[in-house]
Every structure is written in structure tokens, then in C-alpha cells.
Amino acid sequence: MPQLDSRTPRPGDLWLSRPPYLLVAHVLSVGRHGGRGVVSYELADEDRTVLEHVDALLDAGWWQTFQPMVRRYG
């Protein structure tokens, strides 16, 4: 599992799901529970309608499912 470091999601971050889905995870909190990294987020569709609230481990599944949303200007 990746360590909690600069690549780790932070509260307020938006992470984009990898294809074939286009969902956005709005990170609410990140921490440790029982020595493992956990992330709490709201999962929203492309219209930003919240579909569900999720508490998940920061394990291989997280890193395979989501990528940081890069904001581009101009």
C-alpha cells in the first residue's frame, strides 16, 4: 500500500475515476485506522450529484480506481 505522503489524497481534493466510468471523489478526510490508511469521500457523477458517501481503505483498489484530478487553466 502506498504510504500517506504527498501523493495521498487530502481533504478538499477531487479525484477522478479511471475509465470506463466518469465519477468524481470529493475527499472529506484522510487518516489511519488500525495502522492502515483510510479515506472518506463523497462519490458524485459528472453533474456533481452526490451518489453516496464512502469510507474506504487506501489500498491497491483506491490507486487503481482513482487518479488525481488535474485542473488546467487557459
Task: Offer a few descriptive terms.
8% helix, disordered N terminus, 74 residues
Compose a concise summary of this entry.
The protein has one helix at about 60-65; strands at about 15, 25-35, 35-45, 50-55, 65-70.
Could you please describe the fold and organization of this structure?
The chain has one helix spanning 60-65, and strands spanning 14-17, 24-33, 36-44, 50-57, 66-68. It is mainly beta and 74 residues long. A five-stranded antiparallel beta sheet has the order 4-3-2-1-5. Strand 1 (14-17) and strand 2 form a beta hairpin. The longest helix is centred in the C-terminal third of the chain and has 6 residues, at 60-65. It is globular.
Oligomer: single chain
The rounded Rg comes to 12 Å
Biggest sheet: strand arrangement: 4-3-2-1-5
Number of helices: 1
- Mean pLDDT across the residues is 87
Order of helices and strands: EEEEHE
What's the overall geometry?
Answer: globular
Task: Give the number of DSSP strands.
Answer: 5
Q: How much helicity do the residues have?
A: under 10%
Percent of sequence in beta strands: over 45%
Q: Uncertain regions: pLDDT < 50 for 5+ in a row?
A: 1-6
Intertermini distance: 36 Å
Structural class given helices, strands, pairing? mainly beta
Total count of domains: 1
Report the sheet with the most strands, covering strand number, pairing sense and barrel closure: 5 strands, antiparallel
